[in-house]
Specification:
Elements lengths: L16 H8 L1 H11 L7 H7 L2 H14 L8 E6 L3 E6 L2 H19 L15 H16 L7 E6 L3 H4 L2 H9 L5 H11 L15 H21 L5 E4 L2 E6 L2 H19 L9 E4 L4 E3 L2 E3 L4 E3 L1 H13 L3 H11 L5 H9 L1
Antiparallel strand pairs: 1-2, 3-5, 3-6, 4-5, 7-8, 8-9
Length: 337
Amino acid sequence: MMNQRGVDSLGGGLNGHDIFERIISLENLFQAWREFKRGKTNKLEIQEFVLNLENRIFQLHAELKNETYIHSAYTAFYVNDPKPRHIHKASVRDRLLHHAIFRVLYPIFDSRFIHDSYSCRVSKGTHRAVNRLKKFLIQASQNDSRLIYALKCDVKKFFDSIDQEILQKLIQLRVHDEDTLGLVGQVIGSFEKSPGIGLPLGNITSQLFANIYLNELDQFMKHRLKIKHYLRYCDDFIILGDDDDVLKETTKQISDFLETRLKLSLHPNKIITRKYRQGIDFLGYVVLPHHRVLRTKTKRRILNRVNGGVNEHSIQSYFGVLSHCNGYKLKQNILKE
């Protein structure tokens, strides 16, 4: 879940060049540093940056003000989360700037997002998304007295497929200052999967840009297709309905919109329709009419990590996950291990 600190009071009432001045201000840069370094102070790259912190931030401010700032290259590596993901990591200085940009732009755009977009937003997150899905299922099924289907879809290679020109045009609809657009454009253009395509997974700005991009899909769902029970977490989304054939037709409309408007496509192997009574698999949980359980793969992953040896902090985080579902037996197995 995204932290409320640092984004709740910024952006409001800003216009024109004020946005750029707010981003590059020393106050914003130092506050962005305080937020960025949380939980990272034991890392060597952070410790090295701190050795000459004030000079580095003043230098960054001067380069931004003089328009001589140039984004550095990325360091690429893989993580298993649980599937392999190709992460591109920017330098500490660049990531500091990403946080400074995010702090100012987030409230400008977040106010335009639909309520039921749950990824990388203040007071949202996976657990609230699953709780909202449960509420939708109860409403749509009239307390399980009606047959309800859930259509679950996934955008194919989402971050690798984002069209940078389309993204910049969407940002221009809300930000009109040329200096801000130039700086944001440099961050967007600092990475390419192919010419003019893609965003890096590692940037905090990529989280905001992803929501700006897929807000077009959200608006299409709510205002064009008039879908009442729709929610999205990053590039995964769910629609509820009482007619399987209608949901299949809706899938075609969504696919056409994504391809023509955003140059994206649905993952053909991840278009799944299930009855509520069969259980709806979403964000690591399976939601059933009278209870909620962990996805089988998630259970196995937790047990494998416990068997391999984990610290107390990890154990407590697993218990936190289990507190949102019927996980008593798994908790006992973890304690036994």
